[in-house]
Amino acid sequence: MIAPNAVNHSEYAIDRFWLVNAQGYSTKPSGFLTFTYIDNEWSAAGNVLAEANLGAQRFNDGAGLWGDMWAVVSSLNTASNVLVTPVFASSDMFAAWTLSDINDPLPVELVQFNADCQNNGTVKLSWTTASEINNDYFDVQKSFDASDFFSIGTVAGNGNSNTINYYEFIDEESGTAYYRLKQVDFDGKFDYSDVVVASCKTDNFEIKAYDNFSGFAVQVLANFSDKVTIEIVDTRGRLIASKSVNIIEGMNNFQLDENISTGIYFIRLNGEKMNESLKVFKR
């Protein structure tokens, strides 16, 4: 299973899920669920879960994410491969379910993470979670090159939650910078979010970037000359390609012909007189 922050946790879930629906009822009943599975579904190549730690985990239909309810188990018979849940209310039972390791359940579900320039010269970082499991805190991290990150503050998490939670953090120093979240559990385990960028400077140049199928076209309108490095960086901060160019006064057009997979990238321009970044989508 892939969480929205692109961290793969499928190794902690069995290779099966169930759709539990109510049909033919005027009033949906309450009850317990019995899940049966085969050994190959939890011991498949790549899985690292422990069968003795299996618990039921529900899908959050409202947010479209796993993690709405977790570690649900009343009894587990590993010899006969049967897991029985406690009794659920009718409103809790009818959904999609899987079995995951209760010590490593599917993670904090990050719905969105944004960095927005404010009129007062600050940057507002905002993010939303659909569910949280053992979430101690968020370490808010910043970088000027999308590679070397440092902490600028922490925000307390909500521990265990299956409701929507909203968070904010204000960076008092604006400019062009990259941000990510390090989500830390109570046991010290952690995951990173995708990287977001804020470009809050007002300078004497304008930059545009386009996907033109063979790569990216970059257009720079400047009233100065500069030697600039154009870089393509993915949302995890990894450098995909780099090209050195000379910016002259007026309109400048550059082409980066790279074999790049479909996805979201940052076009980063670094020079003595400019330090700017744009988010682009490669089709």
Structure in a nutshell:
The chain has 283 residues and is mostly beta strands. Helices cover 3% and strands 56% of the residues. Strand 3 (54-60) and strand 4 (65-72) form a beta hairpin.
Task: Report on the architecture of this protein.
It is a single chain. With 283 residues, this protein is mainly beta. Mean pLDDT is 84; it is low at 1-7. It has helices at residues 39-42, 90-93, and strands at 13-19, 34-36, 54-60, 65-72, 75-77, 82-84, 96-101, 109-117, 123-143, 150-161, 165-171, 176-185, 190-192, 196-199, 205-211, 216-222, 226-234, 239-247, 250-256, 263-271, 275-282. The protein has 3 domains: 10-101, no CATH class; 109-199, Immunoglobulin-like; 205-282, Macroglobulin (MG2) domain (Immunoglobulin-like, Sandwich), CATH 2.60.40.1930. Strands 8, 9, 10, 11, 12, 13 and 14 form a 7-stranded antiparallel β-sheet that branches. The radius of gyration is 24 Å and the shape is elongated.
Please work out how many helical segments DSSP would assign. 2
Q: Output the helix-strand order.
A: EEHEEEEHEEEEEEEEEEEEEEE
Beta-strand segment tally: 21
**Low-confidence stretches at least 5 residues in length (pLDDT < 50)?**
1-7
Q: Strand pairing plus helix content: what structural class?
A: mainly beta
Instruction: Note the beta-strand portion.
Output: over 45%
Distance between the termini: 24 Å
Radius of gyration: 24 Å
Q: Tell me the major beta sheet.
A: 7 strands, antiparallel
Total individual domains? 3
Helicity range of the residues? under 10%
- Characterize the overall form: elongated
Determine the mean pLDDT.
84
